[in-house]
Each structure stands twice: as structure tokens, then as C-alpha cells.
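Technical annex B. To support the medicinal chemistry partners, we prepared a structural model of the target in complex with C6P, based solely on the information shown next.
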Amino acid sequence: MSTLVNKSEFPIFKNRKLTYLDSASTSQKPKVVLDAMRNVYENSNANVHRALYDLGSESTELYESSRELIANFINANSSKEIIFTSGATASINLLAYSIGSQLKEDDEVLISHMEHHANIVPWQQLVKRTGIKLKYLPLTGSGEIDLSKSSELITAKTKIVSLTHMSNVLGTINPIKEIAKLTKMVGAIFIVDGAQSVSHMPVNVQDLECDFLAFSGHKMLGPTGVGILWGKFELLNNLDPFLSGGEMIEKVTLEESTWNEVPYKFEAGTPNYVQAIGLGAAVKFLSKIGMENVHNYEKELTSYAIEKLQSIPNLNIHGSPKNRGSVISFNIEKIHPQDLAQFLNEDNICIRVGHHCAQPLLETLNETSTARASFYIYNDFSDIDKLVDSIKSTISYF
Ligand code: C6P
């Protein structure tokens, strides 16, 4: 099995001896992404939407064409529906603040026990500000969202349902379309946290039938510091801005201000335009490979890894073996995940251990920490073999 991409397209793999199995945390970057950003700084650098000289027009054009590329990547109706934020966390905070300010005390927000803290804490903060109720969809024993009691939890009081598309701990891919239908039946807004999905599978916002989608650039070969909030235009148009200041205004007087049009209403201050342009290059790179190919390739890697890991005695993989993305969390009896990570590090193998910013989920697993291996397009079977060999020698040491 050959990789989908040549590892040499990623400078870090030339510079460091690495078995990198932590892409769910952040991905490595291909040279084309680094070049795109260097090119801006070296040839076209000027602030966007302000500078009326050629350099400014060039950087603005690059910034706006990146918005266009990202809109096409997720099949948005228009690039106006793409808001550049600093990442998935910022996108969800924007929504919790802006939609949240329209909610009343008896209203309910529904999330699940599977969420990343980025899709829990902003809603808890909203509870403190407004007194709304925060409710949780439970999980089944095999780590899937349990919809058997959905009619008790998704009711006329539910104003927002906000769920992760793919769990960063269990890898579970949630039935977003099914939940979208339940959400629509009560007229609630449906937010999808796509931080772990957009990078690994085709995500089409029309097909998912959600209202908002949040994701991060750095997990999909792009740079840090940039992420996306996609939303249906009419909904975005009806929201109040989150951050305020330069460029998000239409007119400012000493007494009051009016807002710029969507998406600029939500992009206060100088945006991370160089990073946004880098993200455009990442999206081009991924589109050339094809997200269906990315998904199928990772399915093969994940099945291979599950099979190999399952053959190790006393190693317990969390979550359901079916319908999962390229994230595998596990625990080994009598070996703390932190010790395991340190031993793997000796072999230059990078995995993540800990609660993965999903403490409520870890509680349902009865764990305080798991080891997590996650894969991307630059991994291959030999990376998994190295992981398995290193785990086996760690076990024999203990
Ligand atoms: N999960 C992980 O190792 P940011 O940090 O804003 O780019 O993404 C937040 C986020 C939101 N939702 C999900 C499902 C996520 O997995 C993450 C980030 C990383 O699992 C870092 S904690």
C-alpha cells in the first residue's frame, strides 16, 4: 500500500525522523502551504480590504480567492457564507455569544457527552449569562450518540443543537443527517463541530442539512491561527457581531455604529490573511487528492491498526469498531498512557495521551487518560507496524 502523498512533500519528514500519529491534534504542513504563505510575505504583503495600492489589491484578491476555495470545498452556496476565525474554538464561541444573546431563560441548548470542551464550555458560559438550560444527549455502551430518548431531549424548548461530526477521542462519526431532521422538526438551529471531519472526509453542508459548521485550518494541512465558521447566509445576516472594531463596521459616529455586510461583520480587526491564504493552498492540495480518496485511504489504515492493536493482550480500544474515522483511543492494563507515550517517544513515535479536552467523555469511559493514535494522508502501514512493535516492547519492559 503506497501513501496518498509523498512524505517528501512535507518538509518536517525530511528534517526529522518521525512516526507522526497525532494528526487529530494538529496536522503537518506540505511545502505548497508554506510556500503560499512565504509568497505573500515576500511578494504581496499588505493589509486586506484597506490598502488602495496594487499590493493591497493583490493580497485582498488572494484572501478572497481563498474564501472562494473553502466555500467550494464544503459546497457552500456562496463565499459570503465563509467567515475566517482563528479556529473551531473561536467559531463556536462566536455562535454561543451571537445566537446565545437571542435566547431566553426557558430555552434549551442540546449537546452530547461526546463533545470537545470547545463545544461544552462556551455553552456553559451562556448558561451563566442568560439562565438557559444545557442538556446532553447520552452515549450508548459502544460510544455512539444514543438517540433512543431523543424525543424527550429534542423538544419545542430546544433552540440549538450543537454536536461534533466526529469524536476526537472515539473516532465515532455521528449520524448528522438523521439528527438534522430531528432538529428541524422542532425548528432548532443545528451546529456541527467539524474540527475532526472536514480534514478527513467529504463534507458537504447542503447534504448534511446543518445551519452552521465550525472547523480549524491547522488540522487540515493548513497553518495555525485560522479556522472557519460557515453559516447559512440568512442566519448569519440576522446575527449580532461577536468581536467589534475595525472593518466590521459600515459607519461609526460618536454615539453608535452600524455593521458591515456578512461575512465582514464577523471579521473585526486585521484578519489572519496570510494564514487564510495558506489554508486556501491546503484546500487546493486536498481537493487534488480528493476527499473521498482521503476517507477511503484512512479507513484502510484504521482497520489495519485496529486489527493489529486488538491482537495485543490487555489492550482495550474504546468506541465502536464500525463507522469511525482515523482516531483510535486505547488503554493498556497496568500501563499509564503517559508512561506509554514516553516509551514511544524514545522510538520517535508521536501519540497524544490525556483527556483530549473531552473530560466528560473520559468520565463515561471510566478513564482519566487514554492513549490516542490518529492518522492522516502521510501515514502508511509501516507507521502502524512501528507503533505496534513499540507498544509490544513497552509492555515487555513493564
Ligand atoms: N482537538 C485534539 O487533540 P481548535 O483547538 O480550536 O483548533 O479545535 C478545537 C476542537 C474542537 N472540536 C473538536 C472535535 C476537536 O477535536 C478540537 C481540537 C484537538 O483532539 C486539540 S485539543
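Notes passed to the chemistry partners:
The chain has two domains: 32-288, 290-397.
The CA atoms of residues 342 and 349 lie 9 Å apart.
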